[in-house]
């Protein structure tokens, strides 16, 4: 007799054991979807483990029989196998990941919001350039099915092309996915598509979706009816029948890597499903990643370009300002030039966006004497200063009062606040423009469910004159009367020790600049930096190709992707001394394992949350010509008999774990 442990997809319950009827035994594999009785109901779940005999902890008379088995295309299991192999994890881990669909896994998320101003009755007609792009993409789908890179400038109407692709797939009885790097963007896309494609079933699947809607989506999947699924990460892992199209919007965004184990990188996952299931993959962006552009250059991706903005307006005019430290100390972060431009914009009754990628009032606080940075007592991450007197940890959300003094060396020393955040900029702007209506938007204001849609509405009705915000405002929002964008401290993050830091900064600046004057020719962008003049020259969509060429040269000289593969190896131990000893052992092992110069193990370095909840964390960065080399090395670590927990993360997009 065969038994299976079933993980419930729609209820936050412990997995339960069920019996398999003899007639369907052959249809059972790990990951098979089954319908099982629970009390008086029938629920859907996923087979998490298979047992040839009754586990000793169970009683046969209590074990009920599986009601129905949902057969999945064999290619789906091939996909999960491949994915597990790539991440050096078990298939069970991936199937368990699907339980994210259950209501318990839902975290509190921002309010579901969609812009009111988008109202279409039918699918608008494509312009000539869009028509040509669509033809190229669709024909490619019939021929060699290379993944497509749709490189279309801001406002070139990529979403409309997506709508046509998705509509076509549906009419051919196929299902498709549309993914966005953030929930709010996914909601935005869903709203737009629903207005375009009235008679096509469109389901959202992400953590902000209510259980009822998730169940409806699940039902659609189980009935194997074609549909469009919109989400961030999860939909790509589901056993959707005839899933033949996957569109990944804003493909350059680091949000496509999951922030928890097993740290799946959705773009890589899509490429794997492309290989195993012959699913067509379309990556879209106004600022494609350097790696994707190189893949297109090497003919591994097909490049399709959109060069014209939909409203036929010119790109905004970009100016750069070098910030003066003395001026910042005396007058604040808004330079005289920026101040003048803001005044002009207000006089013309238009709107201003001031962008600073840090919430709070200051980046951090430290002692003037011992230079100790004030850190969170729970997770050791440097705290951000809020409202000038509060320390807040952006990792675990703990708050502390900001101490005025440090008593190092037996004496009292002043605590200094450093850097700047949205709160300070909003205050400074209010001081300079006393009569202006100013609002601030960042993760803090998003926590208040009503404020976010309210602010967007007030922007659209021109009630807000100056909006101060973080990267949240850089994507997807369209304010017709916004004509000036000011980046307060554009080179703030360029010194972060990660090979993607510069590329991400440039992409973000271009995104935020793209908010200026989208329906008018008057868009103006002012970039303030503390010294990186190179950055200002690239903060413009038209110079992005040039940036990518230079960035590629820098990557080549450091042998970073696209010229190599990277992976993080994270070591964790409750015993600090043992962690250090074992890190040294890993290092020594690498020295003998990597014989030639093409592969290297860098580190160990301490994680941002080095000491968190009693566990110490250090990490290595492995670089090699292929993942196979790094995987073989990682597997060989088991010979060392280490006690530390080892986590392997291929293609890491940040150091923040
Ligand atoms: Zn001190
Ligand atoms: Zn913390």
SSE inventory with pairings:
Layout: E1 3-8, E2 16-19, E3 33-38, E4 41-51, E5 64-65, E6 68-70, H1 74-87, H2 91-97, H3 128-142, E7 148-152, H4 158-171, E8 175-179, H5 183-196, E9 202-205, H6 211-222, E10 228-231, E11 243-248, H7 266-277, E12 280-285, H8 290-297, E13 302-306, E14 317-322, H9 325-331, H10 336-347, E15 351-355, E16 364-367, E17 384-386, E18 390-392, E19 399-401, E20 405-406, E21 413-418, H11 422-432, E22 438-441, H12 443-446, H13 451-460, E23 466-469, E24 482-487, H14 501-513, E25 524-529, H15 533-538, H16 544-558, E26 565-573, H17 576-593, E27 600-612, E28 615-624, H18 627-636, E29 645-650
Parallel strand pairs: 2-5, 7-12, 7-13, 8-10, 8-11, 9-10, 11-12, 14-25, 15-23, 15-24, 22-23, 24-25
Antiparallel strand pairs: 1-2, 1-4, 3-4, 3-6, 16-21, 17-18, 18-19, 20-21, 26-28, 26-29, 27-28
Helix pairs in contact: 1-2, 1-7, 3-4
One zinc ion binds next to loops.
Describe this structure in words.
The chain is an alpha/beta fold and 657 residues long. It has five domains: 2-74, 3-Layer(aba) Sandwich (GIY-YIG endonuclease), CATH 3.40.1440; 106-306, Rossmann fold, CATH 3.40.50; 317-360 and 422-554, P-loop containing nucleotide triphosphate hydrolases (Rossmann fold, 3-Layer(aba) Sandwich); 362-419, no CATH class; 565-650, 2-Layer Sandwich (Alpha-Beta Plaits), CATH 3.30.70. Helices cover 31% and strands 24% of the residues. Helix 1 (74-87) crosses helix 2. The protein starts with a strand and ends in a 7-residue tail after the last strand. The structure holds zinc ion (2 copies).
